[in-house]
Amino acid sequence: MNNKLTKLEKSWVLYDVGNSAFVLLISTIIPIYFNYLAQNGGVSETDAVAYWGYTASIVTIIVAILGPIFGSLSDFKNFKLPIFLTTVLVGVIGCSLLSIPMNWLLFLFIFAIAKIGYNSSLIFYDSMLVDITSTTRSDKVSSVGYALGYIGSCIPFIVSLVIVLFYEKINMSFEVAMALAFIITGLWWLVMTIPLLKNYKQDKCVENNANFKNCFKNIAINLKDMAKNKYVLLFLIAFFFFIDGVYTIIDMATIYGTSLGLDQTMLLIALLVTQIVAFPFAILFGFLSSKIRISWLLITCIIAYTGIATFAIFMQTQLHFWILAVLVGMFQGGIQALSRSYFAKIIPEEKAGSYFSLLDICGKGASFLGTFLVSLFTQITNSANKGITVLSVMFVIGLVVFIIADIGVKRSGKKI
Question: Which of 256, 381, 407 is nearest to 321 (CA)?
Fold first, then answer.
């Protein structure tokens, strides 16, 4: 197998590099800035956290509703790229508009629009994998996408971080520094998307006339097909449980770091370290996928995350947090990239948009449920560490169901 990426594969990978900058901003700087705006607006710290959580939940629900419709439409000939472009522009423009001075409520509203655009774009982007590369190369290409996304997103992030942390020394206000961070991220995201827009061509598609009637008909057919191919449904259930733990650890990292006494600067650096560590390990998992059956690699990642979640239960010091950040970086890219390429191999290629929209719903639903359960168990036990226990259970359930799904895939004769 040729180890060099083709021009089309490189174009696809670059979108990971672009949108990951927005993801990194969401998990680090944006929550801090929102908290700053909320406090200036007379909102208590508790209410600010609640409003942030409510917004994340609303975005999840909206994308869950739009996802199957977008996915089904994108399966029709010549529809995927235009809808993808629309969602990207919603995200990029939304991110850039956050640079305009505004109150906390308007900021939260525009942020929600930008995140809806970002989340929706991933439905089309992930489903493009079946068009841009072969089945035998999909593991490698998917892994490289995540790897370069992790390291590439550090470039605009480090520039933005320097501006935000040292705004006083370069004679500007905190608001202006944040505005520059949003504009830099939006431009980076847009520029990295251009090669894919120029080079992508939708080869695998459904030939029916594109209209809403056929769209919903397509959704119904896909659900019936899934009932016949139970291994696809079982994989989605397994993915729901194990990715739940992955996303929840990412979402809750800032809160736990703060509870351990990490200041904002050290916390941002720790999360940056996770990105840097994730780069070589995502590449490593992509390389190993050509040597070892992908299901064994996924099982390894899930078991590792079970151990990480268990370790988090006993986490007490800042050193523990740094160890956790490195461990997460080691397996984060592998479990995400290999899940994407594994799913691409077991679904009908011409219906990739519809199926990936269901995968996205499982991912977003998992992140919603995971943070809710951790918060609930934390309140019940009055301990943040004990609240994490639920994640270990989620990983174990995901592992068992995945093994059952993989047995079904083997029996079906699918080449993984």
Answer: 256
pLDDT tens-digit series, residues 17-62: 999 999 988 878 888 888 889 889 998 876 776 787 778 778 888 8
Compute the average pLDDT of residues 98-114: 94
Q: How far apart are CA 42 and CA 98, in angstroms?
A: 20
What is the C-alpha to C-alpha distance for residues 46 and 35, in angstroms, rounded to an integer? Answer: 10
User: With helix as H, strand as E and coil as C, how does 101-149 read?
Assistant: CCCHHHHHHHHHHHHHHHHHHHHHHHHCHHHHCCCCCHHHHHHHHHHHH
Outline where 203-293 has alpha helix (H).
Answer: 212-228, 230-259, 264-288
Tokens 């988090």 — which residue? 312
Decide if 295 contacts 234 (C-beta within 8 A).
no
> Residues 185, 21: contact at Cβ < 8 Å?
yes
Full residue range of the structural domain in which residue 312 is found: 7-204+211-412
> How crowded is residue 202: how many other Cβ atoms within 10 Å of its Cβ?
22
Specify the 3-state DSSP secondary structure of 276. Answer: helix
The pTM score is: 0.82
- Reading the block at residue 177, the tokens are 């520094």
Task: Look at residue 1 and tell me if it is in a domain.
Answer: no
Q: Is-contact 233 393, C-beta < 8 A?
A: no
User: For residues 389 and 380, what is the distance between their CA atoms, to the nearest angstrom?
Assistant: 12
| Nearest alpha-carbon partner for 249 in 301, 173, 172, 196 | 301
CATH number at residue 160: 1.20.1250.20
- Residue 204's CB is within 10 A of a number of other CB atoms, namely 17
Taking each helix axis as running N to C, give the angle between helix 264-288 and helix 318-346, from 0 to 180 degrees, rounded to the nearest 10: 40
CA-derived radius of gyration, the chain: 21
* Residue 197 to residues 38, 200, 201, Cα–Cα distance (Å): 38, 6, 9
Specify whether the CB–CB gap between 398 and 242 falls below 8 A: yes
* pLDDT above 80 for 133: yes
Q: Is residue 2 part of a domain?
A: no
Domain assignment present for residue 193? The answer is yes
For the chain, what is the domain count?
1
State the Cα–Cα distance between residues 319 and 317, nearest whole angstrom: 5
| Ramachandran area for residue 42 (φ above 0: left; ψ -120 to 50: alpha; else beta) | left
Q: What is the pLDDT of residue 7?
A: 94
Stated as kind and residue range, the H or E segment containing 314 is none
Q: 276 CB contacts (<8 Å, ≥6 apart)?
A: 150, 151, 154, 329
Whether the per-residue pLDDT at 77 is higher than 90: the answer is no
Entry field: residues in the chain: 416
